[in-house]
Request: fold
Amino acid sequence: MPSLFDQVALRGLTVRNRIWLAPMCQYAVDAQDGVPTDWHLVHLGARATGGFGLVFTEASAVVPEGRISPQDVGVWNDTQADAWARIAGFLHDRGAAAGVQLAHAGRKASVAAPWRGSTPVAPADGGWTAVAPSAAAFDDFVEPQALDLAGIREIVDAFAAAAVRADAAGFDTVELHGAHGYLVHQFLSPLSNLREDSYGGSFENRTRLLLEIVDAVRKVWPERKPVCVRLSATDWVEGGWTLEETCEVSQLLAGQGVDLVDVSSGGLDPRQQIEIGPGYQVPFARAVREKAGVTTAAVGLITDPAQAQRVLDDGDADVVLLARAALREPAWPWRAAHELGVPAENASYPPNYARGAWRS
Ligand SMILES: Cc1cc2nc3c(=O)[nH]c(=O)nc-3n(C[C@H](O)[C@H](O)[C@H](O)COP(=O)(O)O)c2cc1C
Reply:
């Protein structure tokens, strides 16, 4: 059996395979109240049905101002948690594990959905003033307000409170979003963190917020459930956050009870020069796995079953995450099983769909 279809255990969680759905914002909350909708049930549910081992929700804000767009989901109140419980329950019924990505967009908050231009949404139109480590705007976005120490404390507490709700909703794991130029990454990178207090300057200070969030979440999140963290391995800009720092902080994270590091890159600075190609971030996952000794997920243009299997065979990562390929093909794991010679019986088809199984 190709190892893509091997179970993987993280603490008390056993996931049926190593093909996981990456977090993907849907901008589908028309009511702008952060409550996930039928869209999220069907979108995530289809991919759990399609054989993904673990299904991550999109970036889910821990406070209203932490949303990217007014149409983002959240986990800052119980109405949202109740709606998530229905979705997590459906994912479980389909045999998938359920993960929620907890997020705060920082200075990249209050913008329209990509298909509406990703341009700033003014408070009069349902937007808000964004917060950040420093009053330095991303690209041509509105200048954010620099957080004071009390504001930072509130955000740490909000991550913990969201984790409590996520647990009550039945999620098996949380992924703390520390990548793509959102709030935590804004603290990590010297390009966006210009602070002169205990949260800025040295590596120790820039990583303080992330480590405080991990500590706060770990205190309330059940011992038996894993915690994941997504990091951008590099800013792809001279003078930014580096792969070496990613490996170093990953080692600290592992020591503080983080079970998996999901290794992405970029998103912090529009000057980024990303060298895009198949599996372009896989070498970063390998470096983190080797240097930090932590379980890792690789993501980024992993589209072909044989390619995905090679990532595991080569020891680059422990699991693969798919995003765009899963949008066009919700049952990608079924095709992967077929192409890699896994019998349909082992490919997580629901009995209702057995007659449609790929067969040689
Ligand atoms: C529609 C869409 C929405 C995304 N939203 C998120 C998100 O909410 N959180 C996140 O960490 N990454 C997000 N990403 C990035 C993906 O998780 C993934 O890292 C990236 O697309 C590269 O993987 P791929 O080549 O398989 O698409 C998004 C990507 C897409 C295509």
User: Anything to note?
Assistant: Residues 22-25, 58-59, 101, 177, 179-180, 230, 264, 299-302, 322-325 surround flavin mononucleotide (CB under 6 Å). The two ends are 16 Å apart (CA to CA). The first helix runs from residue 38 to 49. The chain has one domain: 3-356.
